[in-house]
Amino acid sequence: GNTILGKKEFDCKFSSSPLTLSCEKREGDVQGRRVSVVDTPGLFSSQLSEEQVKTQLEEALKLSSPGPHVFLLTIQLGRFTEQEQKGLKTLEKMLSPNVSEHTMVLFTYGDRLEDTDIDQIIREDKNLQELLKNCYHVFNNRDKDLHQVTELVRKINSMVQRNGGKCYTNEMFEAAERAIKEKMKRLKRENPDIRTHRHTHRHTHTCSLVL
């Protein structure tokens, strides 16, 4: 968030526990455009329950009203765990399948690549290929040059145009919730013994980003 906005707006330091436990929204001018960034707890937060993380995502939708144009799924390079492999699917299950159309993977700590080609890493990892089916970008945390932000903004603009300028709205989320409830009701009618327990995973005018 700080790199995108070009100024220190969010707490950012090394810590053994997550720094973000609730949503925070900040705004700024980026490449001549007003941008709002909403920082959320990680999908797999160790300090929040799955339901609490889901609640924070719902809050992020409200903060970015009428909705975010892009979700940035941030992953540290060199730390691609099994949970993170399921990151996009987790987001789809919590919000709705079409959230993937508004999601971009943002790799941080690109400086760890050194002379390694990111495309080579992707070609060698089928799980990574599936996660990156839409779009991705790499941030070098040591590089203060604005070119990486310029390139990210270009990719975000392309995604927004591809979606017809539409953002992911709270109405889309509520429609997905209704569809899930109807499906569970139908399954219960067909099999009265079924347990209707929904497992929720932990998990751009102004251009709105949720990360």
UniProtKB/TrEMBL annotation:
The keyword GTP-binding applies. SUPFAM superfamilies: P-loop containing nucleoside triphosphate hydrolases (SSF52540). It comes from Seriola lalandi dorsalis. Pfam families: AIG1 (PF04548). Keywords: GTP-binding, Nucleotide-binding. This is AIG1-type G domain-containing protein. Residues 1-177 form the AIG1-type G domain. Gene3D superfamilies: P-loop containing nucleotide triphosphate hydrolases. Belongs to the TRAFAC class TrmE-Era-EngA-EngB-Septin-like GTPase superfamily. AIG1/Toc34/Toc159-like paraseptin GTPase family. IAN subfamily. GO terms for molecular function: GTP binding.
